[in-house]
Amino acid sequence: MTERVPSALVSTEWLSAHLGEGDIRILDCTWHHPSTNLDGRNQYRGRHLPGSVHFDIDHIADTTSDLPHMLPNAADFAKKLGLLGVSDSDRVIVYDRLFGGSAAARAWWMFRVFGCDNVAMLDGGFGKWTGEKLPTEMSPVRPEPKTFTATFRPELVRTYEQMKTNLASGSEQVVDARGPGKFDGSQPDVFPFKKVGHIPNAVNVPWADLLHPEKGIFLDPEALAARFQAEGVDLDKPIVTTCASGITSCMNALALYLIGRTEVPVYDGAWAEWERLEDAPAAAA
């Protein structure tokens, strides 16, 4: 029987102890918006965790959509993960260079959307790993292709139509992971949005508030619950998360998973989709 990852998060201590085990597959998921002049693939080539391969959310995506990094279909996800050397029996560990926010948490969510729960994110990511002087390497990894099976789980995804319906029904609480300035429309986004603000009735829980400010690791479950509750989120009622383009919303979904809300969906199109549609209202400060 395949051993499972112990949680949705693994520590640097756990991963360093299991590094090199045959069923561990490590994915460097680092992604940056082009405006930053940084490139996740180049950073991977510069240095990465031993044995890791690069997981590009703009490549493992619906490339026919003009929205950023939308989910691919199950067959495409399965094919591309197989080419990355990931099999159905592997324990998958994802990490990035921004504590999960660019875009390891999205990769974690994508695996779950396509039926794989044997996946965890490295808590603290590349920064904590290198800060502890744990091993890295520069040589690119050329994995042997494997067979990966993907089964779409629609309950973990929300579409524009569902979000629009929710405006009237209020059946799901909408939690926006962006920073407060982008949420209230006072700060421009890196994406060229024409409409500013947020989905009406959404509440703002910035994803960075869920992390230890110095260590970059998730707060303990009690503190996570308190942070959501401080914004009026009822943890016993349905919740959906959103953000600018479907990346940092997955950090909030992961945080909610850590406190027992394991089936929280993410609005895949996020503000990138909402703001462009004329019939989608916006609220701002």
Characterization of the model:
This is Sulfurtransferase. It holds the Pfam family Rhodanese. Its main location: cytoplasm. The chain is an alpha/beta fold and 285 residues long. The protein folds into two domains: 9-152, Oxidized Rhodanese, domain 1 (3-Layer(aba) Sandwich), CATH 3.40.250.10; 155-274, Rhodanese-like domain (Oxidized Rhodanese, domain 1, 3-Layer(aba) Sandwich), CATH 3.40.250. It is built from ten helices and ten strands. The protein has helices spanning 12-18, 40-46, 74-83, 104-113, 125-131, 160-169, 180-184, 221-230, 249-258, 270-274, and strands at 9-10, 24-28, 53-54, 91-95, 119-122, 157-158, 173-176, 203-204, 239-242, 266-267. A five-stranded parallel sheet has the order 1-5-4-2-3. A three-stranded parallel sheet has the order 8-7-9. The chain is globular and about 50 Å long.
Topology:
Blueprint: E1 9-10, H1 12-18, E2 24-28, H2 40-46, E3 53-54, H3 74-83, E4 91-95, H4 104-113, E5 119-122, H5 125-131, E6 157-158, H6 160-169, E7 173-176, H7 180-184, E8 203-204, H8 221-230, E9 239-242, H9 249-258, E10 266-267, H10 270-274
Parallel strand pairs: 1-5, 2-3, 2-4, 4-5, 6-10, 7-8, 7-9
